[in-house]
UniProtKB/TrEMBL annotation:
Belongs to the alpha-carbonic anhydrase family. One of its GO terms (cellular component) is cytoplasm. InterPro entries: CA_dom (IPR001148), CA_dom_sf (IPR036398), Carbonic_anhydrase_a-class (IPR023561). It comes from Helicoverpa armigera. Gene3D superfamilies: Alpha carbonic anhydrase. This is Alpha-carbonic anhydrase domain-containing protein. GO terms for molecular function: carbonate dehydratase activity; zinc ion binding. SMART domains: Carb_anhydrase. CDD domains: alpha_CA. Pfam families: Carb_anhydrase (PF00194).
Length: 271
């Protein structure tokens, strides 16, 4: 079948018809992240359940947008958090935080590269497995975290869906400054592409210290547009030394032998 991993180590995973697609992915060999990924070399799957995002941009709870000295960081104030399920994931994953990576230009600000294509920035939605008590507890397990990545492409025309978030950027220019924002700040991600867009998934690591290999990565192929001026406000955020944060991107890491990245073509559920 085309939706089976072609380079599994047979000593690690034995063929078993009762094993789900998500379970197969959970057994992949992990690697350090981020990666440069060639889509043409990835096994293609289309049988995974669609990804389901619940309680993100339509959450009644406010969030906090913080300049932590290294990035713009968003989290919700309440313990009632958004939930991610489906796709390569087994069970539910609880939203913990969102943050950004960027650089000084429009081509080297993303961490992951798809077919060699670079973009201005990359946004990560970090979740932890609900079977663990907290993010801190989950990091110690191979199935602990799930990170959804969006590649951000700089364009001349501002994207109005980013307006609420950009307003927050203007108010957190200084390190350790924060501002309360509504869940509408996440409305830019509200798109049919969440359930219909293609993505790549693999077992990888955090891209910041301690680089623990505990992450199921989900990187959407289609970039999200953000206006050049809107992105400029992100680049103006200052670090602890009051100097703008020019770059917070980890270089791509090498693929270890036997490592697999799956290219997933989502098929919208017929309800």
């Amino acid at each position: 079948m085309e939706n089976r991993i072609v380079n599994f180590n047979p000593m690690r995973v034995k063929p078993n018809k009762t094993v789900t697609d998500a379970e197969q992915i959970s057994r992949l060999r992990p690697s350090q992240s981020p990666l440069a990924i060639s889509l043409s070399r990835c096994p293609q799957w289309s049988s995974l359940d669609t990804l389901q995002f619940k309680g993100y941009w339509d959450n009644e709870v406010n969030g906090i947008l913080l300049n932590n000295g290294s990035t713009a960081y968003f989290t919700f104030e309440s313990e009632v958090r958004p939930i991610l399920r489906g796709g390569p994931l087994i069970g539910e994953y609880v939203f913990e935080q969102m943050h950004f990576h960027w650089s000084v230009d429009d081509f080297s600000g993303c961490e992951h590269l798809l077919d060699g294509q670079g973009y201005a920035a990359e946004c990560h939605f970090v979740h932890y497995n609900s079977k663990y008590e907290s993010m801190e507890a989950a990091v110690g397990h191979p199935d602990g975290l799930a990170v959804v990545g969006f590649l951000l492409e700089a364009v001349d025309v501002p994207n109005p869906r980013f307006d609420r978030l950009v307003e927050g950027f203007e108010r957190i220019k200084k390190s350790e400054h924060s501002v309360r924002v509504t869940s509408e700040s996440l409305s830019w991600m509200d798109s049919d592409d969440l359930q219909e867009g293609n993505y790549v998934t693999y077992k990888g690591s955090l891209t910041t210290p301690p680089y623990t290999e505990c992450v199921t990565w989900i990187i959407y192929e289609k970039p999200v547009h953000i206006g050049t001026e809107q992105l400029g406000l992100l680049r103006q955020l200052e670090g602890p030394d009051s100097i703008p944060i020019e770059r917070n991107v980890r270089p791509t890491q090498r693929h270890p032998p036997g490592h697999s990245v799956i290219y997933v073509k989502q098929v919208k559920s017929k309800l």
